[in-house]
Amino acid sequence: MKKYMAYMRCGFLEGCAYRSNFITGMLANFIQAAVLYYVWRSIFRYQGVVNGYTWEIMRKYVFVAFLCNCSFSFGFEMNTAKRIIKGDIILDLLKPVPYRGMLFFRMLGTAGMEFGVTLILVGCLYLSVNGAAGIRLERVLLFLVSLFLGMGIKFGIQYLFSLLCFYTDNSYGVTKAREVLTNFFSGAILPLVMFPGGLRRVVEALPFQGIVFTPCSIFIGTFSMEESLRRIAVQAVWIGILWVFGVLFWKKASGVISLYGG
Asked: Which domain of life is it from (predicted)?
């Protein structure tokens, strides 16, 4: 476990050292959240309730979604592609820890730095706009559990996409495809209840909703306590499924490495 803690520490220090990446990513998410905030405010001026959401609920959702997005801003597909092209990936495979474990704890350390900064900034902004009314301790605790599980789901998805870099040099395209899919289907842009019936059923059968929509819905109270616990269990199941897919896909990708390496 000490080895993994060392990787987590490295990830935290790396996040602090390259904080400009985090700041620019947070700024981009802030612009998106600000645009969504004013768009929804304009909509709710003419319509009191949209698919069960009032302006008060939607206002909270936008802020919490912003928090979730900034907490999960890490991405490592392009870095993986660079290490493959340079041949440095072999050094990672020679280390006495599993490759995926090394990635996870390194990204966990980076996410810890990002979450700490984001929680303070977004928390102050949330309280200044929405106040503390409606915040319940049991929901905050469930939200934090769901947030951590959502990070595990996003890591699993990113890990699968990063393995695609073993088959293509276009890591930028792989990264952007994953970002578009994640932002749209996770609920980062709009709550999944706003999707039309058929598309909503498809999205609910995918793991993306566990990244943003589930934690947000738990915090703002649109899920009952029973539904919140059920959704958290679904998140845990998806982590297991993505882990299995990662193991199977890694066997294929590692075969490609041996072919290129001779």
From this structure: Bacteria
pTM, to two decimals: 0.86
Measure the CA–CA gap between 223 and 229, rounded to whole angstroms: 9
DSSP per-residue letters across 127-195: HHHH-STT--HHHHHHHHHHHHHHHHHHHHHHHHHHHGGGT-S-HHHHHHHHHHHHHHHHTSSS-GGGS
Per-position b or e across 116-135, b if 16+ CB within 10 A of its CB: ebbeeebeeebeeebeeeeb
- Helical spans, DSSP H, in the chain: 2-17, 19-46, 55-71, 77-86, 89-94, 99-130, 137-163, 171-186, 197-204, 213-220, 225-261
Over residues 15-20, the mean pLDDT reads 67
User: How many other C-beta atoms are found inside a 10 Å radius of the C-beta of residue 164?
Assistant: 20
Question: Contact at 8 Å (CB) between 103 and 190?
Answer: no
Note the maximum CA span of the chain: 65
Name 53's bridge partners: 50
**Identity of the amino acid at 67:** L
Residue 107: pLDDT band by 50, 70, 90 thresholds? confident
Q: Which of 73, 30, 61 is nearest to 178 (CA)?
A: 73
- The per-residue pLDDT for range 130-149, each reduced to its tens digit, is 777 778 889 999 999 999 99
Write phi, then psi, for 87 (nearest 5 degrees): 90, 0
Scanning the structure block, which residue is given the tokens 């474990």? Answer: 101
Q: What is the pLDDT of residues 142-183, one digit of tens each?
A: 999 999 999 899 889 988 888 887 787 667 787 888 888 888
